[in-house]
Amino acid sequence: MAEEYDQFQYELPALCQETRLVRDELTFADYVRLVYAWLENKEPV
Q1: CA–CA separation, 45 vs 39, rounded Å?
Q2: CA trace torsion 22, 24, 25, 29 (10° rounding)
Q3: Which among 19, 44, 45 is positioned nearest to 31, based on CA atoms?
Q4: 34, 12 Cβ separation under 8 angstroms
Q5: Shortest CA distance to 5 belongs to which of 37, 43, 33, 38?
Q6: How confident is the model over 10-33, as pLDDT tens digits?
Q7: What are phi and psi of 37, to 5 degrees?
Q8: Cα–Cα distance measured from residue 34 to residue 15, given in angstroms and rounded to the nearest whole number
Q9: Considering the entire predicted model, what is its pTM?
């Protein structure tokens, strides 16, 4: 799970750029939506 979190954090800047969000200004709802989208699109382990 820690590796997945690290991978999400690594990909977060690109996710923010794709959605035109500023990482330092993410609301909780923004963050949840990004996590959900990332989980939906990542390769199964």
Answers
A1: 11
A2: 90
A3: 19
A4: yes
A5: 38
A6: 999 999 999 999 999 999 999 999
A7: -60, -40
A8: 7
A9: 0.80
